[in-house]
Write a structure and sequence with these properties.
Elements: H1 8-16, E1 20-25, E2 30-34, H2 36-41, H3 53-56, H4 65-75, E3 79-88, E4 97-109, E5 115-123, H5 125-155, E6 163-165, E7 170-177, E8 186-194, E9 200-210, H6 211-230, H7 235-248, E10 256-262, E11 268-274, E12 280-282, E13 288-290, E14 309-312, E15 318-322, H8 334-350, H9 362-374, E16 383-390, E17 398-403, H10 409-423, H11 427-447, E18 456-463, E19 469-475, H12 492-499, E20 502-508, E21 511-518, E22 521-523, E23 525-526, E24 544-549, E25 553-561, H13 566-576, E26 584-594, H14 596-607, E27 614-617, H15 623-631
Parallel strand pairs: 7-23, 25-26, 26-27
Antiparallel strand pairs: 1-2, 1-5, 3-4, 4-5, 6-22, 7-16, 8-9, 9-10, 10-11, 11-14, 12-13, 12-15, 15-16, 17-18, 18-19, 19-21, 20-21, 24-25
Helix pairs in contact: 5-6, 6-7, 8-9, 10-11, 11-12, 12-15
């Protein structure tokens, strides 16, 4: 290295800098200095210093590196790039290897007036590769989970739960990661089962093996456990039935399981583990403890009654159940894994979190960070994480008193959306409940009161101890008798019953009550949390129509099609389709709400006489699809 008349200390600092430093001189970019890391990037090839960079590193030709250096030399404008793929001859033997570098090119002036370039470069190859692996892992985990569900659905319906229940005094969250090496369902089983008396039973287990056989066995064990608990059996009896199955079913032998019964009213815990890692409790003061467990054998090995443990969860504490794939790592003991989990979980709970892409709810965030941080080297086995947190207060109820006028419907829907969103209802349940409640409110406005009478109605929402949600719409009017032949009307009740678990209309002398019942779920989160920036919460999308310039006449509809907007849709279809004279495609993929009034319009137009037809487009994952299927418009 030559660096002119630099002092010895400056030369030492230059040589030992933790980044690659090159200094070029003149328009030919003669290499006049290169420190230790810079020389290592080139394989310490001889005669690096003293030659133009184009001769010293000819492999950079065609990679737009020399051109960037020329531009910086000519313009004096520095250039920085945080991540650039560069093919380099690391060994000086002519073979090129891929690397990623963050670098800055900056023009300088020497003491004699000559111009030159300083290059500062840091290799980021390892970071880029780790990030890309994490991104691929997150993408593949979602796909593997879908494949897993496809496999298990073919074996037995509902082997993997759709989510965890939403309960009034207990927050639940679940995450599921499919092992890196497998593309089919694994053997993890998990569930959260609300009991009729308010208790909740949490279940996590692990079946030996992977693939279809393990998935089938997992489904059988889970079905036996749920049937046993539903019948009123306690934990010991349930484990006895699981042992009985495992004794007869070879593929279930050796499975591990953990059952925890939690009473949300008292925080009391009763639990049993069969060769399964002990649940972890995170305390509010950064403390933690594993539940004390007795050594036990896997299922099918010993028929002795299990030892039932007792403990207590206080409001604000979090209980974590997990499968052993979370804590078992190659080259690490189980004790090491358990210590790692406790340390990571405590940090995840107490990390100061600002604006991030992580979930807003504390328990969700803790579970997401545990999965992300414990899996930095990937997971060799399926991983399930099931969390529970005892809430200090019961979740709020909803109580509205609203004038029975059509212009009030949007406000009711906004209030319902906010309340259901606060409970944590998943998007499918949220849409179904909003749709059904809107239909019930519309019926009140249309049928309960004469046109010249001011009336009102009440909307009350309550979440029961068993996770069942009840929304009641009450009025104090007298519904008009429906016509003998309703034609295309009267689809509101059909929609309500098709979307929810139950819907009843109860007329009485003092008014009518519509009771909607549904048990919403919070979806199981799959894989590690995504890295993309946070998106704002979905808001009510305004109604709009536009003609799409394609090879067919298409009208794209956005937002709600309801009592307020149906006339606008009717006018748009009539205008664009020339009153039925032209074949028209109506794209409903972006419709956020398709009320019975909208279905009535589509039925009427679909059955109208005319030379042309009406084609309806609604993908299976769209909000409008289910309403169209229930109404018979598409099959």
């Amino acid at each position: 290295m030559t660096a002119g008349s630099l002092p010895e200390d400056s030369l030492a600092a230059f040589e030992q800098a933790p980044a690659a430093l090159f200094v070029f001189r003149g328009p030919e970019h003669l290499v006049v200095a290169a420190n230790r890391i810079a020389r290592s990037f080139t394989g310490d090839r001889p005669n690096l210093v003293g030659r133009p960079i184009r001769e010293a590193m000819p492999e950079l030709a065609g990679q737009q590196i020399f051109e960037l250096i020329d531009d910086v030399y000519a313009t004096g404008v520095p250039v920085s790039q945080p991540e650039r793929r560069v093919l380099v001859d690391r060994n000086g033997d002519g073979s090129l290897e891929e690397g990623f570098f963050a670098y800055t090119f900056m023009r300088i002036e020497f003491a004699d007036g000559d111009l030159g370039i300083v290059v500062h470069a840091t290799e980021t190859t390892d970071f880029v590769e780790r990030r890309r692996v994490a991104e691929r892992r997150a993408d593949r985990s979602e796909e593997r989970y879908r494949q897993a569900r496809d496999v298990v659905v073919a074996l037995q319906e509902h082997l993997l739960p759709p989510g965890v229940p939403i309960l009034p005094t207990l927050e639940l969250a679940a995450r599921y990661v499919v092992a890196e090496r497998d593309v089919a369902a694994g053997g993890d089983l998990f569930d959260a089962l609300p009991m009729s008396d308010g208790r909740v039973v949490l279940l996590v287990g692990d079946v030996v093996g992977h693939g279809a056989s393990a998935a089938a066995t997992m489904g059988q064990l889970r079905a036996v456990a749920l049937q046993s608990l539903d019948s009123g059996a306690d934990l010991a009896e349930t484990v006895g039935r699981l042992n009985g199955l495992a004794a007869r079913l070879k593929s279930a032998r050796g499975a591990t399981v953990c059952l925890v019964e939690l009473d949300p009213l008292t925080g009391g815990l009763r639990y049993v583990t069969c060769a399964h890692p002990a649940p972890l409790i995170l305390q509010a003061d950064r403390g933690w403890r594993y539940l004390a467990t007795q050594p036990g054998l896997p299922l099918g090995i010993d028929s002795k009654p299990p030892v039932i443990g007792l403990d207590r969860l206080v409001p604000g504490e979090q209980l974590l159940l997990y499968s052993d794939g979370l804590v078992e790592k190659l080259g690490r003991t189980l004790g090491d894994g358990l210590n790692d989990l406790a340390r990571v979980a405590v940090a995840a709970r107490h990390d100061p979190v600002g604006e991030t892409s992580l979930p807003d709810r504390l328990l969700d965030r803790v579970c997401a960070l545990i999965i992300e941080r414990m899996g930095t080297q990937g997971y060799g086995d399926d991983v399930t994480l099931l969390g529970a947190e005892l809430l200090p207060d019961r979740r709020p109820e909803l109580h509205l008193r609203v004038p029975a006028r059509a212009e009030q419907l949007s406000g009711v829907r906004a209030a319902l959306r906010e309340w259901l969103g606060g409970l944590g209802a998943g998007p499918d349940d949220l849409n179904a409940l909003l749709h059904a409640a809107y239909e019930a409110c519309t019926n009140v406005i249309e049928h309960a009161y004469p046109a010249d009478t001011d009336g009102e109605f009440q909307v009350d929402g309550v979440l029961g101890d068993d996770g069942s949600l009840e929304i009641t719409i009450r009025d104090h009017g007298h519904w008009r008798m429906p016509p003998v032949d309703p034609g295309t009307r009267g689809r509101g009740l059909m929609l309500m019953r098709g979307l929810l678990d139950a819907a009843e209309i109860r007329p009485g002398p003092d008014g009518t009550e519509v009771l909607l019942r549904h048990a919403p779920w919070r979806p199981v989160a799959v894989g590690a949390p995504p890295i993309p920036a946070r998106r704002p919460a979905p808001e009510e999308v305004p109604f709009a129509v536009e003609v799409v310039p394609d090879d067919r006449l298409t009208l794209k509809v956005t937002g709600p099609v309801d009592h307020d907007t149906v006339d606008q849709l009717r006018a748009a279809i009539g205008h664009i389709g020339r009153g039925g004279g032209l074949e028209l495609t109506v794209d409903l993929a972006a419709v956020t709400h398709l009320a019975s009034s909208g279905l009535q319009l589509l039925h009427t137009l679909n059955n109208a006489d005319g030379p042309a037809g009406l084609n309806l487009v609604a993908p299976q994952d769209s909000t409008a699809h289910q309403a169209l299927v229930l109404s018979g418009l598409i099959r």
